[in-house]
Amino acid sequence: MESLSIEYGRPHRDGAVLDLFTTWAHRSPDAPALIDGERTWSYAELDRLADTVADALRERVRPGDLVGVCLDHSAALVAVTLATAKLRAVHLPLGPRPGERRLQAVAEQLRPACLVGDPTLLPPGHRPGEHAALAVPTEGANAARAVVAAFAPGGAVAVPKGTHYAVLTSGSTGTPKAVAVGEPALGALLHWYRDLTGLGPGDRHSLLIGVAFDPHLGELWGTLTSGAALSVAPDAVRWDSGALTDWWREAGITVAMLPTPLAEPVLDRPWPAGLAVRHLTVGGDRLRRAPGPDVTATIHNAYGPAEATVATTVHTMAPGGGHGAGAPPIGLPIPGAVVLVTDDDGRPVPRGRAGELRIGGRGLAAGYLDPELTARRFVAAPDGVEGSDRVYRTGDRVLMRADGVLEFQGRLDDQVKVSGVRIEPAEVEAAFERDARVRRAVVAAEPAAAGGSRLLAFVQTALAEPPTEPPTGPDLLAAVRPWLPEQAVPSVVRLVDTFPLDANGKVDRAALLATATASDGEDGATPTERTVLKLSRDLLGRADLGPLDNFLDAGGNSLAAARLLAALEEEYGVRLRAAQLLRQPDVRAIGRLVDERRAAVAATV
Prior knowledge:
Elements: E1 6-8, H1 18-27, E2 32-36, E3 39-42, H2 43-57, E4 66-70, H3 75-86, E5 90-93, H4 100-110, E6 114-117, E7 131-133, E8 148-151, E9 163-169, E10 177-182, H5 183-197, E11 204-207, H6 215-224, E12 229-232, H7 241-251, E13 255-259, H8 260-268, E14 279-283, E15 298-303, E16 313-317, E17 332-333, E18 337-342, E19 354-361, E20 367-368, H9 371-377, E21 378-380, E22 390-400, E23 406-411, E24 416-418, E25 421-423, H10 425-432, E26 438-447, E27 453-461, H11 473-480, E28 492-495, H12 509-515, H13 527-540, H14 558-572, H15 578-583, H16 587-604
Parallel strand pairs: 2-12, 4-5, 4-6, 11-12, 13-14, 14-15, 27-28
Antiparallel strand pairs: 1-18, 2-3, 6-8, 7-8, 9-10, 10-20, 15-16, 16-17, 18-19, 19-22, 21-22, 22-23, 24-25, 26-27
Helix pairs in contact: 1-2, 2-3, 5-6, 7-8, 13-14, 13-16
């Protein structure tokens, strides 16, 4: 009889969250808990800071209330996260710059009782009402100059009882979906992570993952429930793999997490000598290469949607190489997790046959803050599955090997990943169609030259009365940017008169991509400029990029910047910092910067 594609993790152990932090604050009050540059906060100091924030919120924030947090990596972020838990409220991480209109949409849809952040960035509905200035540190690499808690009238949406945090994921309705995760699920995840990495007193763990991305909660809580110290990563290291590993060395980082798009450039380079990093967990996108024999850290390739509390499966690769040349698998289920591969009817398929990955077990989220959506995606477990009465339909296509290890094979639907973040094209389309100048928008994804995917938007403009000059692609891109996270902003906007249709009468995205054309633009005035231009075009997938175009405005992100820096170092033997590159007004200026650095290096030889 064929074995079915069902695999169980080891028995899980529950783990506390806030109580464990408090235990360390009493057991080791003077031990370092948070390090930001030259400033260090002990466990006792951080606990007192969190109490101060909780006291400032206590009169207006009740257990179960949503608290939207618009802060970057900083002491303020950590203190507010702890304070929210102390109040038994629901932490909703939004990131420091979620986009004005996107933040306004979240405020209207979810109606959080409180938004915390820079007062100049909060939506209008939270500005004129009651607010409280929070006494949090304003020094540090990413600290806000001022932090307030702004309260809004009216009740929030219903949140499942026991929810510890909620996190946004891309939604096909044009507004993000909010996933509610309970404390038992988070506590079990943290216990697994501490066992996996041996994280404990004396360790230093990076705080680097984007704040709106749920793995950052694994960084933050995993460290503070282990007695280790969190070390705040400077912003520049998110763009530059060389700067990142230099910072690891300088900060004495021993355990770290990285999003896949940043981990791959790190693994593509020779592993630097002298690093203290023992364990590196990678996740968020498909890892396309295994670590080489020079890598001295254990690499964990983790997979998991927000709907299953950060991580569901893991594949561990010990130092020394020998892991094969292909893409590593996503591995086996973590303790308490159940994974199964099913056919279109939800029945488990035999091992060795591809199908949809469904997840059950201890790590499942309570659901979405939308009961109808919860009912569609969290469904009854099929017969024969033990230990879980419901499963989450991931929409991911996987194959389970005979040994139970899962291999990732892509998405079953239109959802794509850009720089490690899941994007619903329909959400991006809805953002364009908010503009009165747009009749219809279609967003499609295609492979980018630098790896991963890039988004292209095809826009049909509306007829204006009276007739006016039609908008340009850059005009529409500027208007849509505030509605979207960085990764969801298309690289290119093309204006079209009509959309090709397939046999079913639906827009044929493949035909749109096939007919997309771009002009080559200028070729550059100097050999270096031409090389930089070619590299930038390839990395951004922008054949129309010209010497006077700005790298960031043309769609450059952290992954593209890191790869451009690596390509320039390989081509010319000079190393630039991300901050230098990103300050240049255009591609031509980057070329001049390269020539200047080459001349300086030659003068010292």
